[in-house]
Amino acid sequence: MNPPFSLIVTDTSPLITLALAGSLDALLRPGVPVSIPDAVYVEATRVRGAAGAGEIVEWMNAHLDKVRIVPTEIGIDQQRRFEEGRPTRALGEQAALEVLDRFLERDPVAEALLLFEDSDIARRQAIIDERVSLITTGDFLRELEAAGLIQSADYVLDRAAERGRNVERQRQVAPDAATRTRLRQQLQSRGERG
Description:
Elements: E1 7-10, H1 12-20, E2 34-37, H2 38-45, H3 53-62, E3 67-70, H4 73-84, H5 91-106, E4 112-116, H6 119-123, E5 132-136, H7 137-146, H8 153-162, H9 178-193
Parallel strand pairs: 1-2, 1-4, 2-3, 4-5
């Protein structure tokens, strides 16, 4: 059996979806530290009044003991690009990969979970360390529901959709079940312990 996930890293889209659903606490349900790359945080909160931005800021401030913003080289580049008026597309994804690489370098046996929605990350799977498992927001929520840690994945997705979020891809179960199975086992063993 694989070791349990010891870190959750999220890309920008899951943060926004969960914020719009009023369900950011779902990220804390597995009982694993959550890291948000600086570039992801900036993408999600930079524009005041943007969908979910205020909720993300408030949630982060309420959970500084469990959730941390991780500085990255990509985040520094992102800031320069803003100042120079250059594009910043996909920098959150790149920052997430940087956070994961650094985390895995420090701990040679650690395993991490990367929460995503954009297909760009799934296409990069070949270059992502084998100790990083990818899971969509929808599949993450379904596993939390199966473990009894949230009431309904569909309810969360419906609430995000009511606030204008396109969640149709999140309603589809990803074809690769390995990550879902590992997360399910970890959530079940956590439930048995306490």
